[in-house]
Amino acid sequence: SFASEYWMSVFEPFVASMSQDSRSSPNPDFGCNTHIKFGAMRNYARDRLGADWIATGHYAQLWHRSLSTRDERDSSIFEHWMATQSEDLGCQVRESISDRAEEVWLLAETETEGIGHLPPMLLAGADRGKDQSYFLSGVKTESFRDVIFPLGRSYKSQQPTSSSQPTVRDIAIEAGIPTASKRDSVGICFIGKRNFGGFMSQYMPEPPRPGNFVDVDTGKVVGRHDGSLYYTVGQGARISGVGTRYFVCDKGSGDDSNTVFVCDGTHHPALFSDELAVDFSSFNWIGLGRSGRELNHVPRPLREGKTIDAWARTRHLQPLVRCTVRWDRDGEKLRMKFHRAIRAITPGQIACLYAGKEGLICLGGGPIESRGKSYFECGMDLALPSIHPSGHNDLSLSS
Known about the structure:
By secondary structure, the protein is α+β, with helices and mostly antiparallel strands. 22% of the residues lie in helices and 21% in strands. The protein has helices at 3-20, 28-47, 77-97, 105-109, 133-136, 168-175, 196-201, 300-303, and strands spanning 54-55, 60-63, 121-124, 147-148, 211-215, 221-225, 246-251, 260-264, 272-279, 284-285, 308-313, 321-328, 333-343, 350-355, 361-371. The radius of gyration is 22 Å and the shape is globular.
């Protein structure tokens, strides 16, 4: 069941991160895919079961570029199918970047000719409402070499009007699978429907300390909480006895580490920033370069001291937003400057980069180390047109 591997590689680091830095809100799903599904499970399937390929039910796609160059004359039905899929995905990738001048550097990465192993590229699933590439962005490229995602081209429950193909739920119902109509699971898998704070308090090395909610505008204490680690930037504060609808906008540090700062309103400038930084060594680039070349996994413009324009998201299924990315070699940081104000950029969560039309190509991801100053700290007001939606179902910006 890989329970021990999960405990050591995912759960213990999750607890340690939360206990060492109350401002961090790590994402265990990121570690689960990296260390368990495409780590321990993949190794077991290959080494103990002798599997040639591993298939999972993720809604994402993999372009196995090396298969595009194979001689299919003596190939099996499966190998022929894989090669056909590869050729088709290759066409989609090239079309998605052919008319984007700012991504011309990517064209060289789509070549399938020449010497050297061609790493697979991670692509978004056809069903963008269920796309899971964000959670897969921490998986090492090598771990994708023998993986396929059969559902990558399918839609889970609702097809576009132009398609007559059955959805995954339709197929499951037809096959009589018991979970065919089961609701989608949400939240952290090992917590389920239990209270997050109550569950986590059982495993923290020290009991969480109560602290104050402080209004960021007035500096006044407006309530008490049971521990700052239970709160994530952007969530509602739910302060009893207070008529104002407060949201968590920051947490203290140092001697003030148990203070939770709150603001009045979901569009308060203290919740928004347009910059973040990721430790460069922690960012996982996927599918770039060829084997045997130094820093081949890093986009060429960054290696040359230039910037790249890309798509990004800092939450699962958050609408993609344009950003400019640069490699700060002095601080060894990957810095992202967004073209719009982003709500609740949170250390520990994942910043994921995409390229191509509508963000088809997932370039990789890494844990956010810090965000830039908020609009409130910069003394800047927010205009609604400059705000980026916080999620795919964010209706707060509707006119």
